[in-house]
Amino acid sequence: xxxxxxxxxxxxxxxxxxxxxxxxxxxxxxxxxxxxxxxxxxxxxxxxxxxxxxxxxxxxxxxxxxxxxxxxxxxxxxxxxxxxxxxxxxxxxxxxxxxxxxxxxxxxxxxxxxxxxxxxxxxxxxxxxxxxxxxxxxxxxxxxxxxxxxxxxxxxxxxxxxxxxxxxxxxxxxxxxxxxxxxxxxxxxxxxxxxxxxxxxxxxxxxxxxxxxxxxxxxxxxxxxxxxxxxxxxxxxxxxxxxxxxxxxxxxxxxxxxxxxxxxxxxxxxxxxxxxxxxxxxxxxxx
Length: 287
What we know:
Aminopeptidase; 38% strand; 7 helices; single chain; eight-stranded mixed beta sheet; globular; 2 domains; 14 strands; Thiol Ester Dehydrase, Chain A; alpha+beta
């Protein structure tokens, strides 16, 4: 007898709440919306692999196309239900990926699905790149897919600088002369890389006072936000501070990121202030 699917069977879970516009005249979710739910979860799966989708496929020399999608409806979701959509790779073929999807309300399985993606170039199937195959196998086996490296600006500055340029200067419109400073040459930098060698996130650690270190310039590429890569960079910098004997770390968090740091154990100290025209708050954590 096949064991019923459970949320614990999936390493990648995307959570969402049913909107009023997705409910039909029977007051249940219209059947076609489940494919949208699963498609959102597929995007989360690529983030869980630490792969920025477009950039990674370009680097791999192809694109993913859906060959097959099938759903088995077991029960119905209703307005305002909180759903968990699990995604896992069930089988890797020569040029295809068979993905299993499941929509849960709590532990109740509502919909089970199968999607087959084909790796192709100019609509012609081609073998799955070995790097992608090995990455998916490693992820499904529970192995880490991100490597955080620590080092100086001479070693990591090119990749760290590229991320900061895109996030702070290009995206947030912070003036370039405010982003780059002399501290980069002497402080400790962290850069997170995926298994394709792509730089995903960065941060830096510098002394602030006796026994106190400051974390700054934390930036995550847009496509990977909402995953764990920023948390992994933060943890690596805090561990480096512990190893050098610091008892406290502080940072200036953008208000939009304050929740992220709160979940990591940081607490606010002092009022809101502006840096580069953006609201910030000082946050601290005892090591």
